Amino acid sequence: MPGKVGGFIASVPEVMVAALLCFMWAMLTALGLSNLRYSEAGSSRNIIIVGLSLFFSLSIPAYFQQYGISPNSNLSVPSYFQPYIVASHGPFRTNYGGLNYVMNTLLSLHMVIAFLIAVVLDNTVPGSQLERGVYVWSEPEAAKREPAVAKDYELPFRVGRVFRWAKWVGL
Question: Do the beta carbons of residue 75 and residue 53 sit within 8 Å?
């Protein structure tokens, strides 16, 4: 069976795989940025937080990946293996090899840097509940009545009909 699955995957043209990846990354980016809809998007505080987290998520891993493969080597490694190459001999060095490996790997991943910068800035830079977008979740009963929130978290149409009884048992 794995031979047939592998043969099927190998038969998919590279153009189709590239189109699928472009579509997938566009959807993931849109989904990630759609979480900003409850916050004040025009606030300079939020614009700076998003901008800094995107900038640092591109620049810090690029610095860490300088320690990957030397430019003189003939070894060609895909970019998604770069964090693991950096992990063994990156810029973060202590006497503990395991800590070096973990920190060099984590700090060379774009998602980790963006998450850390955004969380730290969002929780340290002062802003109102409206700017931060937490007003939606501050009162759970009011949030359940808000149509935009209810539409986001309700079950799909056919699944909702099947599990209509669940609201009577407290689920």
Answer: no
